[in-house]
From TrEMBL:
This is Uncharacterized protein. It comes from the Bacteria. It comes from Vibrio algivorus.
Length: 202
């Protein structure tokens, strides 16, 4: 009659090798999973859908899923200028200028200007690129969306809440130059440069 298992020194050695290998494999898999999951949009959806952070339920689900790492990092030091600056620059881009004013205790004004812009072609409804009389294509700059701005305001208010600070967030009028594709300022027939402005509603 054969024995399936003997509790001797050799068996203990092989058992130890197998256990160690299995543990190393599991650790490697957990590290890999952590790298793939943490920071992913899918994990952001899971956190949002499970109500992990009840204070954030007024945020848009997609906005939270895209920005939760930045939001949680900023929340680590809620109510501190550095956390506001970090969050604003991560969401709107490093091209923003931020100014803080405290007119009275627990009243903070945050002025945000020079929103980072992206260039877009000006086209007709049929997709043709509009051009000048000298056949130069027109390009306009575009600011961050009103949706992004409104979501950012909500997060900043959440950050200010623990300290009881009243936040007054102001976005300055953003002026930008209309340019041709070769980076020349678009002008009127009188040679005056054309500037378009946009105001982000509060």
């Amino acid at each position: 009659m054969s024995e399936l298992f003997k509790d001797d020194e050799m068996d203990q050695l092989f058992y130890g090798i197998t256990l160690t290998t299995k543990q190393e494999s599991m650790i490697n898999e957990l590290v890999k999973m952590n790298k793939e999951v943490i920071g992913s949009k899918v994990f952001g959806y899971v956190l949002y859908d499970n109500g992990t952070f009840p204070v954030m339920t007024n945020l848009n689900r997609d906005f939270f899923a895209e920005n939760y790492i930045v939001i949680l990092t900023a929340m680590g030091q809620a109510g501190v200028y550095d956390s506001y600056t970090f969050l604003i620059k991560q969401v709107l881009g490093v091209g923003v200028v931020i100014e803080y004013k405290v007119p009275k205790p627990r009243h903070l004004i945050i002025n945000i200007a020079n929103l980072e812009k992206t260039e877009t072609k000006i086209t007709t409804s049929s997709g043709l690129w509009l051009s000048t009389s000298s056949n130069l294509g027109l390009i306009a700059t575009q600011t961050n969306s009103e949706f992004t701005i409104n979501q950012l305001k909500k997060v900043l208010e959440i950050l200010a809440n623990p300290s009881g600070t009243y936040l007054d967030i102001r976005f300055g009028n953003t002026a930008y130059i209309l340019k041709t594709k070769d980076d020349k300022w678009l002008t009127t027939s009188d040679g005056l440069g054309i500037i378009a402005t946009t105001e982000i509603p509060e």
